[in-house]
Fold Fucosyltransferase.
Amino acid sequence: MIREENYFANPQIRAKTYREKGIKTILLWNTLFGNKNFYFGQKEDIFRDCPFDKCKVFNDRNYMNVEDYDAILFHGNEMSDYDIPQKRKTTQFYIYVNLESPANRKVHQKYRRNFFNFTMTYRLDSDILWTYMIVEDVKNGEFVAPSKDVDWSVFQNHTNAGNAEEVSSAILNTIKGKSKLVSWLVSNCYAKSGRLEYVKELSKHIDVDVYGKCGKFSCYHNCFKDVIETDYFFYLSFENSFCDDYVTEKLMNPLRHNVVPVVYGSANYSQFAPPNSYVNALDFESPKELAAYLKYLSQDLQRYQSFLQWKKYYRVRGGTKRAVCTLCEMLHKQKKPKLYSDLSDWYAKDKCTIQTFLKNDTYKYATKHTIMNYEQKQGPDYKAETWKR
């Protein structure tokens, strides 16, 4: 990806020249799900328009001496016991990258202690936040969410004052053209969240069209725009595991189109998406109760369109650009690297509480009813993370 052919004479001179120019150098040590550039984009575009843009990314370990890079990014899922840097400067930043939940990918054990300086993950308490999606203010482009301190007042002040307006005519025309109820695009049929079992029960009470490897329908290029947005009222944004802050493109895709997502996960969704922009399956006692509510919404055009009114105030984008901008900024501002004494504790300990009871109990899937029952069994001091919403 970012290899400067014949640029400077040798690795030592290259490193010295970058330092003199004030450019922070970043090495991608391994790949991200097989992608050697971590899905950051093309060479010239990575840091364009970032507040701090004097950074360069490389994936050639021989371009400079490994210990001369300002930062090295390690994708935790693809780390090897036998492949870590042999030399390291105390001023270097080793950054742990992961976009998968600990329920699906265990943190690397051997190098977790006093090895990493920064975390770059989907978790809201990461040093560098790399979420699948972000929400911006339509008028000024400022970042709004996800955040533990999210402020939706631009939207709430308007709607709470009783001044809610109809959605745009384009959105309204899309709504009027919908004729089907629930869609789901899925390829992992054995997710640990029990989502497939939930959908099987839901399908007994409402029509659910399942696309992909786990269903009988096929959907190809521009699936969301041409099929799901056009035909369906709802899309199932069901995550593959229940872990804190784990929200993926399964929510971003419907929010970027004119279809209402039904979420099923362990995040505090109010920190990720605008109020009244989604339906939370865990607000209902059972799939049957959820089905009844979705039918009601599909039959009440005014109520349904209220779930799309937020689009006048916010827009949804992918989160990678903001993440790389934050990475460059931190490298310029942070002077002394800190150390994570035990990354496993930070990343995984008590971060998937609902997932634990699905694994160890008799429940096949999660509902408001099953979670409350589990909490009662654990005693008065126990609280499943998902209810902090």
Notes: The chain has a mean pLDDT of 90. The chain has two domains: 4-132+320-348, 139-312.
